[in-house]
Every structure is written in C-alpha cells, then in structure tokens.
Amino acid sequence: MNTEMLNALKEKAHKTAVEHGFHVEEKPDAYWLGLVMSEAGEAINADRKGRHADTKGFEEIEASEKDFPFAENFKANIKDSVEDEIADKGAANDAASVKLPTQQSWDAQE
What we know:
mainly alpha; flat
C-alpha cells in the first residue's frame, strides 16, 4: 500500500468517524497530550513483552489465495505490537497537532 492509498483510507475513516459522532466535541489540551503519552506507554509495554509485528507473515497471508479475513490476519500478526502502538501514537499525535496551537504558553493555573 502506498502513501496515497493510506491517506485516502485515513480520510475515509475520519469521515466515517465524524458521521458517527466522533471528533465533534472540543477536548482540553491535556486530553490530547494524555492520549499521546498513553500510546507511547503502550508501545513501551509491547516492547517489554517482545511483541513486534510480523509484517512478512501478514503480507504473505494477504498476498495468498487463502480465505483469511483481514481483521483476523491483523489481529494475529500486527495487533498490540510495538509497531501498532507507535502507529496509534502517530494518529494521536496528529490529532493533537490539529487541536493544539504551535505556540502555546502553558500556565500551571489553567
């Protein structure tokens, strides 16, 4: 899958999420920062457990003629791995960068 295909899927997923009520309410900055940090923690835990994605196994199943559903293949080879958690962190980071201004003065009183 190339970058253009992935971006198209990302846009479709976002549109579907908005249509189902996600991304509607405003969240405080701390929410977005917490989301990024929790995903980073999940990646650390996956690494501690030695869980890394088997991308070769995933791609071999996808390329084969086998009738193996994508969701099952993902769960067996990618889900909850370091790479999966880093991808989640990237998505959280993207969401945070959209919501947070680039120049923010942080006041402990807020």
